[in-house]
Amino acid sequence: MFITLTLGPFTFGLYVESYYSYDFNNLINNTKPSFLYSFNKNNEVSVNLASIKASYAASRFRANLALAEGTYMKNQLCS
Q1: Where would I find the beta strands (DSSP E) of 1-79?
Q2: Distance separating alpha carbons of residues 58 and 3, to the nearest angstrom
């Protein structure tokens, strides 16, 4: 789900992606193997990626700031 809101030169965005996965093997700590970096939680609803973005755009200046969280960010970028 992606939502945007524009207020003058400011634009705000919100993105949320969640998933549910189940593996019939008995996994230790409900975690799938590490090569499944994006969807590695088992038998639980998880947030894969959630981000909040703020942008500013003027004639001679632009700025962006984004914050993100989720299993994708934890396993892909923190490895």
Answers
A1: 2-7, 10-21, 44-57, 62-69
A2: 22
CA dist., res. 40 & res. 44, Å (int): 10
Tokens linked to 55: 């942008």
Question: What strands lie across the sheet with 2-7, from one edge to the other?
Answer: 2-7, 10-21, 44-57, 62-69
Q: pTM for the whole thing?
A: 0.74
H-helix or E-strand spanning residue 72: helix 71-72
Radius of gyration for the chain, computed over Cα atoms and rounded to the nearest angstrom: 17
Return d(Cα 51, Cα 27) in angstroms, integer.
29
Convert the pLDDT of each residue in 36-78 to its tens digit.
667 778 888 889 899 999 999 999 999 999 999 988 888 777 6
CA 31 – CA 47 distance, rounded (Å): 14
What token pair was written down for 37? 């970096």
